Amino acid sequence: MSEELIPETPEQETEGNEAAEPIKQRKNGLYPGVSDELAENMKSGWADTELRDLEPIAQAEHTAARRAALSARFPGERLVIPAGNLKTRSNDTEYAFRPSTEYAYLTGDRTHDGVLVLEPTGASGHEATIYLLPRSDRENGEFWLDGQGELWVGRRHSLTEAEQLLGIPAKDVREVAAALAEATGPCRAVRGHDAGIEAALADKVTAERDEELRVYLSEARLVKDAFEITELQKACDATARGFEDVVKSLDKAEATSERFIEGTFFLRARIEGNDIGYGSICAAGPHATTLHWVRNDGAVRAGELLLLDAGVETNDLYTADVTRTLPINGTFTPLQRKIYDAVYEAQEAGIAAVKPGADFRDFHDASQRVLAEKLVEWGLLGDLSVEKVLELGLQRRWTLHGTGHMLGMDVHDCAAARTEAYVNGVLEPGVCLTVEPGLYFQADDLTVPEEYRGIGVRIEDDILVTEDGNRNLSDKLPRQADEVEAWMARLKG
Ligand code: GLY
Ligand code: MN
Ligand code: MN
């Protein structure tokens, strides 16, 4: 942005600005350096761009059902769910905005500063209002003189447009703090996203009751509705294309670094979706043994493995979470393949254990058993039996993490759900989870033969529980070693 395009900062005085106060304060109706003539000139001569008769967004009926379920759980209480605000990256630039998961889940809206309020209508039922930033005011100069004016950041929906799109009555967000501060009666809010809203509600909410709301909204997302399942499939399909992009450009990564892989996948995420759903793990060679390797600044060498853990987040904010471990030159060495095959077998056992009625823990136990058997077979655990290894958990030196987690809008979805609903829960159709066993031999692990050191393998797929078993949403990417090699050969040409 060139210097002359930066709007001058209005002086911090407020006197005389009773009506139509813009977001940032101005002096006596004028900004410094703006003549009366220019201010007057900028007020008019603009076409009416109001959009009329808009169709509701695709998920409007689903967000309505989600709000109805929330309403039934908390009758007679005001519920406040903020989107969150822009966060400064440096000086006057901000991080890309992503609304809070709770807000997006209940509204389908993705703009910053929004607040959903469910106002109780009596002993049961609620009336929803969404508070949003409206179109910029042209009378007071906000649209071209304020940093968040539409001339700078782009046109927003009018409140009437937003109402039609979201199916929720909309009001100006600049009224929400006062409305909440004045309101009486029981109230709960989702915390952690909007300090201004929290300040307005400070004497009306308690941490304990707010936590119950957060837990409810986490558990409500354990079983995905039809819209969510379609989104997760879209996320997985786009992710598969991103992995193909990476394989096709591995020679360029070899000439540069893991960053080329990160950038290649990110391009796909931005073309097909909103973003990546989490920091891409582009771990070549021994970096594969670091579970959350996101520095991605290492060398990519033929003969080594690439562990790529990445997911596209759709425009409606559902993410895939997929890992493939690939031989960089297209062919596994015998040892790499031995370790890969063990992880593949563990993943097959894990996926087979995902079905309605199964315990959530079953797939983890099934995968861990296979890995323990392999580690014993390879002589890495002395004379211990598989049962003893599992009892003592000794395989975990090399398996390191749980075998999977819920997946949805958050990559580690439903994280506030109670233990009895999640970790100790039972699977049912509509649950979506990852199955992602791995084996990791650290470069400095003296307890394994030298040739194992620096090898890390994980295979991760996104599995939907169905009425009669499961469906692998990420099955467009091959997993079996021969199929991986054939796929890579085809893509590398
Ligand atoms: N990408 C983080 C995970 O697999 O859980
Ligand atoms: Mn992952
Ligand atoms: Mn995962």
Please outline what is shown here.
The protein has 493 residues and is an alpha+beta fold. It is built from 17 helices and 17 strands.
N-to-C terminal Cα separation, in Å? 42 Å
Bound molecules: glycine, manganese (II) ion
Low-pLDDT stretches? 1-28
**Large-scale geometry:** globular
Give me the CATH fold name of the largest domain: Creatine Amidinohydrolase
Report strand %: 5-15%
CATH superfamily of the largest domain: Creatinase/methionine aminopeptidase superfamily
CATH class of the largest domain: Alpha Beta
What do these coordinates show?
- With 493 residues, the chain is an alpha+beta fold.
- The protein has three domains: 1-44, no CATH class; 58-219, 3-Layer(aba) Sandwich (Creatine Amidinohydrolase, Chain A, domain 1); 226-492, Creatine Amidinohydrolase (Alpha-Beta Complex), CATH 3.90.230.10.
- It contains 17 helices and 17 strands.
- It has helices at residues 36-41, 60-73, 101-107, 142-145, 150-153, 159-166, 176-182, 195-200, 207-219, 226-248, 250-255, 258-272, 334-352, 362-377, 386-392, 396-399, 481-492; strands at residues 78-82, 88-90, 93-94, 115-120, 126-132, 170-172, 187-189, 275-276, 281-284, 305-310, 312-313, 322-327, 432-435, 438-441, 455-458, 461-466, 469-472.
- A hairpin with a 2-residue loop joins strand 2 and strand 3.
- Helix 10 packs antiparallel against helix 12 (258-272) and helix 13 (334-352) runs antiparallel to helix 14 (362-377).
- Residues 1-28 have low confidence and may be disordered.
- The site of one manganese (II) ion has 5 residues, from loops.
